[in-house]
Amino acid sequence: MRSLVSTLALVLLIVLTGCSPDDAAPLLVAHRGALAYAPEHTREAYELAIDQGADFIEPDLQITRDGVLIALHDVTLDRTTDVAEVFPDRFREIQRGDETLRRWFAVDFTLEEIRRLDAGSWFGEDFAGARIPTLTEVIELARGQAGIFPETKAPETYVEQGFSMERLLVEELARHGLERNGADPETPVIVQSFSAESLRILREEWDSDLPMTFLIGGSDADRWLTDEGLRDVSEFATGIGPAKQLLLDHPGAVAGAHAIGLTVIPYTFDDPSPLELNHFLCELGVDGLFINNPDRFPRDGCG
Ligand code: G3P
Ligand code: CA
To answer: Measured at the alpha carbon of residue 287, what is the angle toward residues 272 and 213, in degrees to the nearest 5?
Structure first.
């Protein structure tokens, strides 16, 4: 039903305004902030991304022990902080094949403890002392300057801990008056997830009308990029975010998605050449890019 509604809305848009999604300027989504130049998911990375002209900044979401949404890519803190030095005994042992590994899970730490961690030194001494921000802090720093593209990351792992990431996200956005689509045109919000279930929960249980991008990149990726798969996506999302290689493997997917009103924003462009950017933006006609180098994003159109 939703796909029919969204298709009718698209047709109406084209009839009334002469515009299609293709006509909108493509979106620069700063992947984890300006990831190429600053430690991911820190204030420093997000502020640099905004300075470099990002339309959106992209916080991946995890949850602390006391139920606060923070901007962090991994479910663990080890890769991007000094947690192993600050809290040497607070690891869990996990089995990876024959190996027993020590991992420090974000959900085992309170926000107060996470605030003590250095999230910048691993990237470079210039960033020593950078902190993991909460989603509240990300919203506050972006407000009026850029949109926010939050990703519900591994939400199913938090259900076991008694948390609904979707509920926390909706409540946090509501605290800032951003829970409805178009609430603040200066700070638009698009939600993204690799979890179709997470987007369905937002739509159906929380009645969210926010635009939603379904990330595609797992072992079932090809299935979603067929005409039937794209129609299925349109039941719970307004766009797709495929790994960029998938669009090279499925050259008809952009047109197929646009034909039913889905936007297409592929990931991840790292140190891209002008040729690569031109191919995706101008030849394939995508609606935006998740990019590590916001300063490389071309603003001069396709000519
Ligand atoms: O969200 C788009 C892209 O960020 C997905 O990859 O692993 O960097 O979150 P990841
Ligand atoms: Ca992400």
So the answer is: 100
- Least confident among 16-20, 41-45, 273-277: 16-20
Among the four given CATH numbers 3.20.20.190, 3.40.50.300, 3.30.230.70, 3.20.20.70, the one describing domain 4-62+133-296: 3.20.20.190
Counting atoms of ligand 1 from 1, which one is nearest the CA of 268?
3
Return residues with CB closer than 5 A to ligand 2 (ion).
Answer: 60, 151
Active site residue 258: no
Is 31 part of the annotated catalytic residue set?
yes
Residue 180's SS3 state is coil
- Contact in structure between 57 and 33 (CB atoms under 8 Å): yes
Q: Are strands 239-242 and 69-71 parallel, antiparallel or unpaired?
A: unpaired
Query: Tens of pLDDT along 80-92?
Result: 999 999 999 999 9
How many angstroms is it from 267 CA to the middle of ligand 1?
7
pLDDT tens-place string over residues 209-267: 999 999 999 999 999 999 999 999 999 999 999 999 999 999 899 999 999 999 999 99
Distance between CA atoms of 18 and 149, rounded to whole angstroms?
A: 27
Burial of 143 (0-12, 13-18, 19+ CB in 10 A): middle
Find the 155 Cα to ligand 1 centroid distance in Å.
14
- Cβ–Cβ < 8 Å for 291, 31: yes
Q: Where are the alpha helices (DSSP H) in 154-293?
A: 155-159, 165-175, 196-200, 221-224, 227-233, 244-249, 253-259, 274-278
